[in-house]
Structure formats: structure tokens, C-alpha cells
Amino acid sequence: MAKSIPTILAVFLIINLMNVCTAKDKVCTKGWECKSSTYCCNQTISDFFQTYQFENLFPKRNSPIAFAAGFWDYRSFITASAKYQALGFGTTGGKKMQMLEVAAFLGHVGGKTSCGYGVATGGVEAWGLCYKKEMSPSQKYCNPDYLYPCAPGADYCGRGAIPVFWNFNYGVVGDALKYDLLNHPEWLEQNATMAFETALWRWMTPVKKKQPSAHDAFVGNWKPTKNDTMEKRVPGFGATMNVLYGDLTCGRGDNDDMNTLVSHYLHYLDLMGVGREEAGPHEFLVCAEQKPFNPTVTSPSSSAAT
Ligand SMILES: *[C@@H]1O[C@H](CO)[C@@H](O)[C@H](O)[C@H]1NC(C)=O
Ligand SMILES: *[C@@H]1O[C@H](CO)[C@@H](O)[C@H](O)[C@H]1NC(C)=O
Ligand SMILES: *[C@@H]1O[C@H](CO)[C@@H](O)[C@H](O)[C@H]1NC(C)=O
Known about the structure:
The chain is mostly helical. The protein has twelve helices and two strands, in the order αββααααααααααα. It has a single domain (21-302), classed as Orthogonal Bundle (Lysozyme). One 2-acetamido-2-deoxy-beta-D-glucopyranose is lined by residues 191, 193-194. Keywords: Disulfide bond, Signal.
């Protein structure tokens, strides 16, 4: 009996040494979230953001009066995020930055899909993911476009987790993700994974070359130029609104659209246990004084061109 102890120790040591030696090229798998990839060995989103937290953030989404009841779920968010986690979404920086980024992204999602205005119970911030589609579009959002002509009868109204509008934008994101969204814009109201995927693509992709993506502007990958500084664009949540919505939201002083997004972000930080004080100074949080990266010229559909 006494003799077997050193053997056990030796085996233990050898196994540990083997782990150290192979750690560099280690490939991990986390079930459906993460398949055979090196980044899966690191902390991923589901390690710090789990189903119950998703439920806490979006508690009213399946209420009978929510317009998208039964549509949105945790699994579709995590599934959609898998390929972007490999590119840094929710996996950049330490655990705090990872959580801040997930809260920021979901802050946009919640703010853009909330139906809580005037509904009262729980406050506006409890009603994120209430919509999956614009309810009474006043137009078809079809602009003449050489690359992305409107499909006959198609309607390019707002759909998704960070809603996509206009034939041009459906065309661009459809190309990027290899979904024929130009001919099937309705897929974004039928498939929650696709709806999150298009939002994550937008978050991770610069609108124009040499500009930051919302992700880059948020996690600190972006170094502002002199022009950026002159035009008061600074890294942070404010800059993510600038990237995503330009002068629809930013450079207009204090406004409801901006404040709704900020309040969702801060609320989610509280619910995730990070705490809103971790969001940093107000000037980085808002974009009231920021000039837009891409000022709207005439048609919002072509503002993302080139
Ligand atoms: C894993 O985390 C470390 C430390 O944060 C980081 O340097 C490394 O790039 C990460 N690996 C992958 C594959 O993401
Ligand atoms: C939704 O889209 C995802 C991503 O393309 C796909 O894997 C899945 O099968 C789709 N789900 C349905 C029900 O069509
Ligand atoms: C800086 O801003 C000015 C005025 O908006 C513009 O004309 C110029 O091209 C910008 N420079 C760079 C390097 O972006």
C-alpha cells in the first residue's frame, strides 16, 4: 500500500508536465458554443454570462404583450456569438472588459428592441427584446442601388437585434454572412440566431476602412486621430453609438435616443454584477458632443457605402 503512493505522485506529475508542454497548442471544445478552437480554452461568454443572466436582462420578452414573445433566447445569442468570440467579441481584455463589452452590445440590442415606453411595469429597461421587427413601417426602405437592387415586393423595414434598414444594408450584411437577405429580408424575423448574427457582424465590422468597428472603439483597439480628437470622438460606449448610428443619435446634445441606449447599458451592468460605476466617466459614455464618423448626406441607405 505505502509503495503505491510515490507511483501515484509520479503519474500525477507526468500528467501535469504533459499539460504544461501541450498548453501552447491546446485546442478545447465547449459543446455547442465552441468547437475545437484555441480561444475556447480561455474564458468565453458562457463562463460569465449564463442563461439566468440573460433572463434577468430580458425578463419581459416573453410576456403576452411582447411583440416577439417566444422568439429570442439565450442559445441563439451564444450560438451567433461563437464565430465573433474567436475574433475578440466578449473575449478581449480581462474578465471585466469582457463583461463590459457583452453589456454594451446587449445595451444596444435592448435599447433598440424595447417596447417599454408607457408600459410601466419594470421600467423601460425591463422590456428589451420585445420587438423583432419594426411595427408600422411608413415605407419599404427601398432605394435605387446598383449592387443591391430591391427584390420585387420585398420590404426592407427594420428587423433584427440591432435592426437592419434599407435594401443596401440588407445586401451588405447578407453578402458578408452569405445569407440571401436581399431576397429574404424576412429571415431576420424568423431566425433569432441570424438576427443576433447580423447585429454582431455590425458590431464587429467598421462601416468604412480606417474607421473603428464598435468593438474596436469599445475595447480600446482604436487610437483616435487628430481629427477624431478635434471632433470629440473618444473611445467608449459613446463612440459605439457614433459608429452604429452616426448623426441619428450623436452630436445632437442630450437626446432620448442616446439616453435610452445608455440607460440600458448601465442597467445591464448592474444586473450582471459589474456595477454601473465601472462604465467610466460620463464623457466617454455619451456622444452628445461627438461629430459623427459618417455624416448623413442625403439618403441614410448610402451612408455606409464604400
Ligand atoms: C487567451 O487569453 C490570453 C490572456 O488573456 C490571451 O493573451 C490570448 O490571446 C488568449 N488566446 C486566444 C486564442 O484567444
Ligand atoms: C437559423 O440560422 C442558423 C444560422 O444560419 C441555422 O444554423 C439554423 O438552422 C437556422 N434555424 C432555422 C430554424 O432555420
Ligand atoms: C480631417 O477633417 C477634415 C475636415 O472634416 C477633412 O477634410 C480631412 O480629410 C480629415 N483628415 C483625415 C486624415 O481624415
